[in-house]
Design brief:
Layout: H1 6-33, H2 46-52, H3 55-66, H4 70-83, H5 90-111, H6 115-140
Amino acid sequence: MHSAILQPVVVLIAWTLVMLVWMLITRLPAMSASGVDLGQLRGTKPADADQGLPAKVQWKAHNYNHLHEQPVLFYAVALVIAFTGTGDGINAWIAWAYVGLRIGHSVWQATVNQVSVRFALFLLASLALVALTLHAAMAVF
């Protein structure tokens, strides 16, 4: 089965891996510079790193975590749309908009992190997700 909506799904997965690498190449040196010994860490929470590492380093980690939250719904709804044969046309375009907005959100959060712009990107992406969800509902009900 080929569905155009699967292309943005793969791109967002690939982008999540890009953010993983970006996080690692900035966070590991910062941890070393801060005297953090990974071999000595036990039972830490993400908030613990916020206290010991520079904010700009943590922004990448925060975004990587964000890419495992709402995008999970995107993956699910995109698969529903693909399985129902409605993943081309407008749904593919909305999915590309969602992915573009999420990538923009990532770059913004990882570099500038001004919350008002970040929130606007998140809100627009959320609206795209709502539209995809409505289209998926129309296809299955």
